[in-house]
């Protein structure tokens, strides 16, 4: 069953930045892309379980702060080694000034 959960206000996430969102026992990363859209992935790197919200966003990539591997956060696909396992992505909805994740 899909659950729609409010994450934050659109103003809480600068363009080309990442926002950490903890819900229940899970951590997510919410991105505000250079295209103005919002995206969501699992919050931990698949390589060494580092928090992606501590990483660097460049265009549509998130760079892991631990070993500097990177992912395309729109698709979850690895783009820079050492990461080789994709991130899980989640649908995002924006309503009024609120960002919601569908989990």
UniProtKB/TrEMBL annotation:
It comes from the Bacteria. Pfam families: Rieske. Keywords: 2Fe-2S, Iron, Iron-sulfur, Metal-binding. Residues 5-101 form the Rieske domain. NCBIfam families: MocE_fam_FeS. This is MocE family 2Fe-2S type ferredoxin.
């Amino acid at each position: 069953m899909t659950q729609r959960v409010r994450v934050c206000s659109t103003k809480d996430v600068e363009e080309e930045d990442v926002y950490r969102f903890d819900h229940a026992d899970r951590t997510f990363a919410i991105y505000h892309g250079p295209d103005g859209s919002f995206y969501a992935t699992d919050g931990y790197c698949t390589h060494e379980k580092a928090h992606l919200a501590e990483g660097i966003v460049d265009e549509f990539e998130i760079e892991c702060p631990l070993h500097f591997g990177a992912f395309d956060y729109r698709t979850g696909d690895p783009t820079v080694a050492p990461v080789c396992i994709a991130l899980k992505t989640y649908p995002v909805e924006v309503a009024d000034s609120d960002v919601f994740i569908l989990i």
